[in-house]
Amino acid sequence: MSGPTHSLIEVRDLTIGYGDRVVLEGINFAVRRGEVFAILGASGSGKSTLLKHLIGLYPPMRGDVLISGASLVRAEGDERLRILRRFGVLYQSGALFGSLTTVENVRLPLDEFTDLPEAAKDLVALSKLRLVGLESAATKLPADLSGGMQKRAGIARAIVLDPCVLFLDEPSAGLDPITSAGLDALIRELARGLGITFVMVTHELASIYAVADRVVMLDPKARGIVAEGAPSWLREHAPEPWVRQFLNREVA
Amino acid sequence: MALKRPVDLPVRWDLSVQPEGTVRLAFAGELDNVSTPVAWPILERELAGIKVMRLEVDVRQLASCDSAGLALLYHLSVGGMTPGATANVTGLSPELQHLFGSFSTEDFRALQAHEPACSPLVEDVGAATWSWLCDLRQQVEFLGEVTLGVFKGLVRPRRLRWGEVLRVFELAGVNALPIVSLLTFLVGMVIAFESAQPLAELGAQVFVANLLGLVMSRELGPVMAAIMLAGRSGSAFAAELGTMKVNEELNALQTMGLSPVQFLVVQRVVAGILLAPVLTIYAMYAGLLGGIPVLLGLGFPLRMVLHQVQSGLHFGDLAEGLSKSIVFGGIVALVSCLRGLQTGEGPRAVGESTTRSVVSSILLIILADAVFAAVTYTLRK
Q: Which of A72, A113, B58, B176 has its CA 20 to 30 A from that of B356?
């Protein structure tokens, strides 16, 4: 397996916010191909807002997001669609469609974007469900799945078109430690086994130490990035004391 | 008709038949979700014409392959296109081998064999009846709880949260005036037009004004106002309470020792009961105003029109319309709040309770109107 190489995502001088309120100003970072990258910060630091801008849900106030060298901010029409298909997104709640079974949820992008025969669509959808360990829940409705299973199904749907990047918004939120550890193991397996690049927003330290190759730490006061590096290195050597406290779970 | 391989297809394959039924299939190029849908039926047709005992699929020359391509390779490997033959795929990279390992015939067969659960008719009828009875019971309990809440409010008016009542008055009343004006004005106009012709044939066109006054005060004023209250404000009550339930705000109230009915519903019911007559009077006037231009156009002077309306209307007509409106207002507020509180779980729940609130409200308004019509007819005799 090839290790992390050149940048897959580049965030250049990005300023984001809501209305006139600036949340993050002039931030820069790059995500390398094949790595698990975490965006970390206290509640209200703009993690989820940043993620929404990275996946193109909101336009930034200034700056650019490049995915494989193509600008997501400036792209329009078919070009934008091509960029969007390069990544999958797992939302906090899983965002499964309640009226569809698990396998139908996973099949949906195949139905919409490919002309594969029906049997092929089922085979691909079921293979993704097997990858996330949900092959036995294929015909269940999302309401009949536990929180952890819904997130796994969300991951299966997100990877069904073989994206090169997977964005995860708080993947461990609301899960018990064992389910959360299972999800971390799945992320590791997909990253190492399939070479998928992961960008995750979280404040679950256990998950970060378990899966993240690198993290950026957001500071709401500075409205920017205060630290960047491997989580275990930052825990000991981060220049800002509060970052070390945060990563060591110490009370200030 | 034989399918031909398109010349610009990104994937190519070489099919060679060897002795003893061994077929070698070597792929090259890109086998992805664009090329696979085209390649699949062509390959199926090509293999159908060959007696295959053993299929050897070689993918070493493939530049890229995604899950769609792997589905085709898996389908080949399990004899999907060569029934009875043994097959194997060689040359997959470790990453693709990992993905290839996640395909399973058992899962596919289980999915094909799965049939959605379909309950028998008797069971459905029983479940629907039981659900209706439970709903009826909830309605009775809810009515009792709200009545008790209103009485408590009357005994201790300070606890009624009048600020909330005024807010509902503004949202459901003041903000609804433009749409109530427009609709009832147009309805008044339509009634005047529609009745003018038949009454003219009887030489009684002047009585269009009397008819308009009676219809607007007894019937259409209260009904139109109530229907608009149900569609515009009742749906908002249901959606608001439904969203609060989904967000667990109602649970929070209960754990604080507060009754959701006392805290949220009583104010809306009081506002609905007080608001409906006001809206109805407004609707009556707007309807009359809509008919007046038609009558003026028919050549009747304004003074005559007003005199006809005045002489045709009695206090009883107005009282009938207003008493109806009080009942209708109560129905809309009660039903909408009940449907809001009955909201289930999931993203569709709020939409469902909003729809149910409007449908139930309008149904009950028409039902109550029919009862009113029968009772008032009997009393007038």
A: B176
